[in-house]
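Let's do one together. I've listed all components of the complex below, 356 residues spread over two lines.
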Amino acid sequence: MTVAEILNMTKLEALTGDAGLQRQVNGGYTSDLLSDVMGRIEKDSIWLTMQSHMNVIGIAALRDIPAVVIVNGNIPSEEVIKRAKEENIAVLSTKQGAFDASGELYNKLK
Amino acid sequence: MKEYRADLHIHTVLSPCASLEMSPACIVEKAVEKEIDIIAITDHNHTAHNRITRDLAVEKGLVVLYGTEISSIEEIHCLSYFETEDQVREIQSFIDDNITRTRNIPAKLGYQPVINSEEMIEKYIEHSLYGSVQKSIEEICSKVHRLGGLFVPAHVDRSSNSIYSQLGFFPEGLVPDAIEISRRSDNESVLQGNPELSKYRVLNNSDAHYPDDIGSAYTTLRMEGTGLREIKMALEGKERREVVAA
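Okay, and this is what the predicted structure of the assembly comes out as:
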Protein backbone atom coordinates (compact mmCIF):
# COMPACT_ATOMS: atom_id res chain seq x y z
CA MET A 1 0.00 0.00 0.00
CA THR A 2 1.28 3.50 -0.73
CA VAL A 3 1.26 6.44 1.66
CA ALA A 4 -1.23 8.14 -0.68
CA GLU A 5 -3.63 5.19 -0.42
CA ILE A 6 -3.38 5.31 3.37
CA LEU A 7 -4.17 9.03 3.28
CA ASN A 8 -7.29 8.37 1.21
CA MET A 9 -8.61 5.86 3.71
CA THR A 10 -7.93 7.78 6.92
CA LYS A 11 -8.34 11.23 8.38
CA LEU A 12 -4.60 11.78 8.51
CA GLU A 13 -3.48 15.14 7.21
CA ALA A 14 -0.30 15.44 5.14
CA LEU A 15 1.89 18.36 6.27
CA THR A 16 4.56 17.83 3.63
CA GLY A 17 2.62 18.17 0.37
CA ASP A 18 3.47 15.37 -2.06
CA ALA A 19 6.59 14.22 -0.22
CA GLY A 20 6.72 10.47 0.27
CA LEU A 21 3.17 9.89 -0.99
CA GLN A 22 4.16 7.35 -3.65
CA ARG A 23 6.33 5.35 -1.24
CA GLN A 24 5.33 1.85 -0.18
CA VAL A 25 4.21 1.00 3.38
CA ASN A 26 4.36 -2.61 4.57
CA GLY A 27 3.83 -2.31 8.32
CA GLY A 28 4.07 0.03 11.23
CA TYR A 29 5.80 0.79 14.51
CA THR A 30 4.63 2.93 17.42
CA SER A 31 7.20 4.34 19.85
CA ASP A 32 8.42 7.65 21.26
CA LEU A 33 11.95 6.54 22.17
CA LEU A 34 14.15 7.36 19.21
CA SER A 35 16.86 4.85 20.06
CA ASP A 36 14.20 2.14 20.24
CA VAL A 37 12.83 3.09 16.83
CA MET A 38 16.33 3.34 15.41
CA GLY A 39 17.10 -0.20 16.55
CA ARG A 40 13.81 -1.95 15.84
CA ILE A 41 11.71 -0.36 13.12
CA GLU A 42 11.67 -2.24 9.83
CA LYS A 43 12.25 -0.61 6.46
CA ASP A 44 9.08 0.65 4.74
CA SER A 45 7.16 0.89 8.02
CA ILE A 46 4.99 3.83 8.94
CA TRP A 47 6.11 5.28 12.31
CA LEU A 48 3.66 6.68 14.85
CA THR A 49 4.98 8.99 17.56
CA MET A 50 4.05 12.01 19.64
CA GLN A 51 7.55 13.44 19.10
CA SER A 52 7.82 16.15 16.48
CA HIS A 53 11.40 17.45 16.65
CA MET A 54 14.12 17.38 14.01
CA ASN A 55 15.72 14.11 15.15
CA VAL A 56 12.51 12.28 14.21
CA ILE A 57 13.25 13.05 10.55
CA GLY A 58 16.90 12.07 10.99
CA ILE A 59 15.93 8.67 12.37
CA ALA A 60 13.23 8.19 9.72
CA ALA A 61 15.75 8.99 6.98
CA LEU A 62 18.32 6.66 8.51
CA ARG A 63 15.89 3.73 8.56
CA ASP A 64 14.19 4.35 5.19
CA ILE A 65 10.84 5.25 6.69
CA PRO A 66 8.31 6.55 4.12
CA ALA A 67 5.96 8.31 6.54
CA VAL A 68 5.77 9.53 10.12
CA VAL A 69 2.42 9.99 11.85
CA ILE A 70 2.55 12.63 14.57
CA VAL A 71 -0.23 11.94 17.06
CA ASN A 72 -2.04 14.06 19.68
CA GLY A 73 -2.37 16.93 17.22
CA ASN A 74 1.28 17.90 17.69
CA ILE A 75 2.57 19.98 14.79
CA PRO A 76 6.26 20.04 13.94
CA SER A 77 8.13 23.25 13.11
CA GLU A 78 8.65 24.58 9.59
CA GLU A 79 12.28 23.41 9.64
CA VAL A 80 11.18 19.87 10.41
CA ILE A 81 8.68 19.95 7.53
CA LYS A 82 11.34 21.30 5.20
CA ARG A 83 13.84 18.59 6.09
CA ALA A 84 11.16 15.91 5.71
CA LYS A 85 10.37 17.17 2.21
CA GLU A 86 14.06 17.06 1.32
CA GLU A 87 14.20 13.45 2.48
CA ASN A 88 10.95 12.57 0.66
CA ILE A 89 9.30 11.57 3.93
CA ALA A 90 5.60 12.22 4.46
CA VAL A 91 4.75 13.82 7.80
CA LEU A 92 1.12 13.08 8.64
CA SER A 93 -0.75 14.67 11.49
CA THR A 94 -3.68 13.37 13.51
CA LYS A 95 -5.56 14.58 16.56
CA GLN A 96 -5.92 10.95 17.66
CA GLY A 97 -3.70 9.45 20.33
CA ALA A 98 -1.18 6.71 19.58
CA PHE A 99 -3.55 3.86 20.52
CA ASP A 100 -6.41 4.88 18.24
CA ALA A 101 -4.19 5.93 15.36
CA SER A 102 -2.21 2.67 15.55
CA GLY A 103 -5.41 0.62 15.68
CA GLU A 104 -6.84 2.28 12.63
CA LEU A 105 -3.66 1.84 10.61
CA TYR A 106 -3.24 -1.74 11.78
CA ASN A 107 -6.67 -2.60 10.41
CA LYS A 108 -5.81 -1.09 7.03
CA LEU A 109 -2.38 -2.66 6.71
CA LYS A 110 -2.76 -6.14 8.14
CA MET B 1 41.02 28.87 48.41
CA LYS B 2 40.33 30.07 44.89
CA GLU B 3 37.32 30.57 42.65
CA TYR B 4 37.21 28.61 39.42
CA ARG B 5 34.85 28.98 36.49
CA ALA B 6 33.71 25.57 35.30
CA ASP B 7 31.84 24.77 32.08
CA LEU B 8 31.31 21.05 32.43
CA HIS B 9 29.16 20.20 29.41
CA ILE B 10 30.85 20.59 26.04
CA HIS B 11 30.40 18.50 22.89
CA THR B 12 33.17 17.96 20.39
CA VAL B 13 32.88 17.22 16.70
CA LEU B 14 32.51 13.56 17.68
CA SER B 15 28.91 14.16 18.76
CA PRO B 16 26.72 13.86 15.65
CA CYS B 17 24.75 16.95 16.69
CA ALA B 18 27.81 19.18 17.24
CA SER B 19 29.37 21.57 14.76
CA LEU B 20 32.26 20.28 12.66
CA GLU B 21 34.24 23.24 14.00
CA MET B 22 34.28 21.74 17.50
CA SER B 23 37.75 20.24 17.33
CA PRO B 24 39.55 19.71 20.63
CA ALA B 25 42.00 22.51 19.69
CA CYS B 26 39.18 24.94 18.92
CA ILE B 27 37.43 24.12 22.20
CA VAL B 28 40.60 24.69 24.23
CA GLU B 29 41.26 28.00 22.48
CA LYS B 30 37.69 29.26 23.02
CA ALA B 31 37.57 28.18 26.66
CA VAL B 32 40.81 30.05 27.39
CA GLU B 33 39.51 33.10 25.52
CA LYS B 34 36.30 33.04 27.62
CA GLU B 35 38.37 32.78 30.83
CA ILE B 36 37.01 29.39 31.79
CA ASP B 37 39.28 27.48 34.21
CA ILE B 38 37.80 23.97 34.02
CA ILE B 39 35.95 22.28 31.19
CA ALA B 40 34.56 18.78 30.76
CA ILE B 41 34.30 16.99 27.44
CA THR B 42 30.91 15.30 27.35
CA ASP B 43 30.21 13.71 23.98
CA HIS B 44 27.15 11.52 23.64
CA ASN B 45 28.00 7.98 24.73
CA HIS B 46 31.68 8.36 23.89
CA THR B 47 34.95 9.38 25.53
CA ALA B 48 37.37 9.33 22.58
CA HIS B 49 38.18 13.06 22.76
CA ASN B 50 38.83 13.29 26.49
CA ARG B 51 42.56 12.59 26.50
CA ILE B 52 43.47 14.58 23.40
CA THR B 53 41.64 17.64 24.73
CA ARG B 54 43.40 17.39 28.08
CA ASP B 55 46.79 17.06 26.34
CA LEU B 56 46.11 20.21 24.33
CA ALA B 57 44.80 22.10 27.36
CA VAL B 58 47.66 21.39 29.75
CA GLU B 59 50.06 23.86 28.15
CA LYS B 60 47.37 26.56 28.20
CA GLY B 61 46.69 26.08 31.90
CA LEU B 62 43.14 24.89 31.25
CA VAL B 63 41.88 21.94 33.29
CA VAL B 64 39.95 19.22 31.45
CA LEU B 65 37.76 16.78 33.32
CA TYR B 66 37.06 13.52 31.56
CA GLY B 67 33.41 12.90 30.89
CA THR B 68 30.62 11.63 28.69
CA GLU B 69 26.89 12.31 28.38
CA ILE B 70 25.33 8.88 28.65
CA SER B 71 21.81 8.18 27.31
CA SER B 72 19.93 5.84 29.62
CA ILE B 73 17.34 3.29 28.49
CA GLU B 74 14.71 5.94 29.25
CA GLU B 75 16.69 8.34 26.99
CA ILE B 76 17.61 10.58 29.88
CA HIS B 77 20.90 12.38 29.28
CA CYS B 78 23.28 11.78 32.18
CA LEU B 79 26.53 13.67 32.63
CA SER B 80 29.35 11.67 34.16
CA TYR B 81 32.78 12.95 35.19
CA PHE B 82 36.04 11.08 35.72
CA GLU B 83 39.70 11.73 36.28
CA THR B 84 41.79 8.78 35.15
CA GLU B 85 42.34 6.84 31.95
CA ASP B 86 41.29 3.66 33.74
CA GLN B 87 37.93 5.11 34.74
CA VAL B 88 37.37 6.30 31.18
CA ARG B 89 38.24 2.88 29.76
CA GLU B 90 35.82 1.25 32.18
CA ILE B 91 32.90 3.55 31.49
CA GLN B 92 33.46 3.27 27.73
CA SER B 93 33.37 -0.50 27.83
CA PHE B 94 30.21 -0.35 29.99
CA ILE B 95 28.63 1.91 27.35
CA ASP B 96 29.86 -0.18 24.42
CA ASP B 97 28.59 -3.39 26.00
CA ASN B 98 25.10 -1.96 26.55
CA ILE B 99 24.35 0.57 23.83
CA THR B 100 21.84 -0.11 21.06
CA ARG B 101 23.81 -0.68 17.88
CA THR B 102 22.53 0.92 14.73
CA ARG B 103 24.95 1.77 11.96
CA ASN B 104 25.26 5.52 11.55
CA ILE B 105 24.71 7.10 8.15
CA PRO B 106 26.55 10.43 8.49
CA ALA B 107 24.57 12.18 5.74
CA LYS B 108 21.36 11.42 7.64
CA LEU B 109 22.30 11.78 11.30
CA GLY B 110 25.63 13.62 11.40
CA TYR B 111 29.34 12.81 11.34
CA GLN B 112 31.11 11.09 14.25
CA PRO B 113 34.82 11.58 13.58
CA VAL B 114 37.61 10.82 16.02
CA ILE B 115 40.41 13.38 15.69
CA ASN B 116 44.07 12.63 16.41
CA SER B 117 46.73 14.93 17.83
CA GLU B 118 47.64 16.12 14.31
CA GLU B 119 44.05 17.38 13.94
CA MET B 120 43.43 14.70 11.33
CA ILE B 121 40.43 12.38 11.25
CA GLU B 122 41.65 9.03 12.52
CA LYS B 123 38.40 7.09 12.12
CA TYR B 124 34.64 7.38 12.38
CA ILE B 125 32.56 5.78 15.13
CA GLU B 126 30.36 3.42 13.14
CA HIS B 127 27.36 2.89 15.42
CA SER B 128 25.02 5.81 16.00
CA LEU B 129 25.81 7.74 19.18
CA TYR B 130 22.09 8.62 19.25
CA GLY B 131 21.63 5.08 20.57
CA SER B 132 20.91 4.53 24.23
CA VAL B 133 22.55 2.42 26.90
CA GLN B 134 20.09 -0.30 27.86
CA LYS B 135 20.41 0.41 31.59
CA SER B 136 18.19 2.50 33.82
CA ILE B 137 19.27 5.91 35.11
CA GLU B 138 19.75 4.34 38.57
CA GLU B 139 21.98 1.59 37.17
CA ILE B 140 24.08 4.13 35.29
CA CYS B 141 24.35 6.32 38.39
CA SER B 142 25.64 3.42 40.49
CA LYS B 143 28.07 2.33 37.77
CA VAL B 144 29.52 5.86 37.63
CA HIS B 145 29.79 5.97 41.41
CA ARG B 146 31.38 2.51 41.62
CA LEU B 147 34.06 3.81 39.25
CA GLY B 148 34.62 6.83 41.48
CA GLY B 149 33.01 9.30 39.08
CA LEU B 150 30.44 12.04 39.53
CA PHE B 151 26.89 11.70 38.19
CA VAL B 152 24.77 14.67 37.13
CA PRO B 153 21.40 14.43 35.30
CA ALA B 154 21.66 16.87 32.39
CA HIS B 155 19.38 19.85 31.67
CA VAL B 156 16.55 18.85 34.04
CA ASP B 157 14.54 21.85 32.81
CA ARG B 158 14.38 20.75 29.20
CA SER B 159 11.39 19.19 27.47
CA SER B 160 13.41 16.43 25.84
CA ASN B 161 15.90 13.89 27.20
CA SER B 162 15.56 15.13 30.76
CA ILE B 163 14.45 13.36 33.93
CA TYR B 164 11.09 15.13 33.85
CA SER B 165 10.40 14.68 30.14
CA GLN B 166 11.22 10.97 30.28
CA LEU B 167 10.05 9.92 33.75
CA GLY B 168 7.49 12.55 34.70
CA PHE B 169 8.95 13.00 38.18
CA PHE B 170 12.25 12.84 40.01
CA PRO B 171 13.00 9.22 41.04
CA GLU B 172 13.21 8.99 44.81
CA GLY B 173 16.12 6.59 45.08
CA LEU B 174 18.44 8.46 42.72
CA VAL B 175 21.56 9.94 44.34
CA PRO B 176 23.08 12.42 41.90
CA ASP B 177 26.07 14.56 42.88
CA ALA B 178 24.32 17.60 41.40
CA ILE B 179 21.73 18.44 38.79
CA GLU B 180 22.27 20.55 35.69
CA ILE B 181 19.97 23.41 34.69
CA SER B 182 20.41 24.56 31.09
CA ARG B 183 21.29 28.06 30.00
CA ARG B 184 17.76 28.46 28.63
CA SER B 185 16.23 28.67 32.12
CA ASP B 186 17.06 30.53 35.29
CA ASN B 187 17.76 28.40 38.33
CA GLU B 188 15.29 30.10 40.61
CA SER B 189 12.20 29.46 38.52
CA VAL B 190 13.17 25.82 37.87
CA LEU B 191 13.69 25.22 41.60
CA GLN B 192 10.44 26.99 42.42
CA GLY B 193 8.55 24.82 39.96
CA ASN B 194 10.18 21.65 41.29
CA PRO B 195 10.77 22.10 45.05
CA GLU B 196 12.08 18.52 45.33
CA LEU B 197 15.20 19.72 43.48
CA SER B 198 16.16 22.21 46.14
CA LYS B 199 18.22 19.63 48.04
CA TYR B 200 20.63 19.26 45.11
CA ARG B 201 23.52 21.47 44.07
CA VAL B 202 22.99 23.03 40.66
CA LEU B 203 25.51 23.10 37.82
CA ASN B 204 25.09 25.57 35.00
CA ASN B 205 26.93 24.63 31.84
CA SER B 206 26.86 25.75 28.24
CA ASP B 207 26.05 22.36 26.62
CA ALA B 208 28.13 23.82 23.79
CA HIS B 209 27.59 22.46 20.30
CA TYR B 210 29.20 25.48 18.56
CA PRO B 211 32.43 27.34 19.44
CA ASP B 212 30.61 30.50 20.48
CA ASP B 213 28.48 28.54 22.97
CA ILE B 214 31.51 27.70 25.10
CA GLY B 215 31.44 29.60 28.39
CA SER B 216 27.97 31.03 27.66
CA ALA B 217 27.03 29.40 30.98
CA TYR B 218 29.32 28.20 33.73
CA THR B 219 29.43 27.46 37.44
CA THR B 220 31.78 29.16 39.88
CA LEU B 221 33.36 26.78 42.38
CA ARG B 222 35.45 27.75 45.40
CA MET B 223 38.09 25.09 45.98
CA GLU B 224 41.71 24.34 46.92
CA GLY B 225 42.46 22.75 43.57
CA THR B 226 40.81 21.41 40.46
CA GLY B 227 40.69 17.64 40.90
CA LEU B 228 37.52 15.57 40.89
CA ARG B 229 37.78 15.22 44.67
CA GLU B 230 37.81 19.00 45.14
CA ILE B 231 34.81 19.36 42.83
CA LYS B 232 32.95 16.68 44.78
CA MET B 233 33.70 18.51 48.03
CA ALA B 234 32.50 21.80 46.53
CA LEU B 235 29.26 20.12 45.45
CA GLU B 236 28.85 18.72 48.96
CA GLY B 237 29.78 22.06 50.53
CA LYS B 238 32.50 20.39 52.59
CA GLU B 239 35.52 21.98 54.28
CA ARG B 240 34.65 25.46 53.06
CA ARG B 241 34.57 24.39 49.42
CA GLU B 242 31.36 25.51 47.74
CA VAL B 243 29.38 26.33 44.67
CA VAL B 244 29.63 30.11 44.72
CA ALA B 245 27.31 31.09 41.95
CA ALA B 246 25.79 29.29 39.09
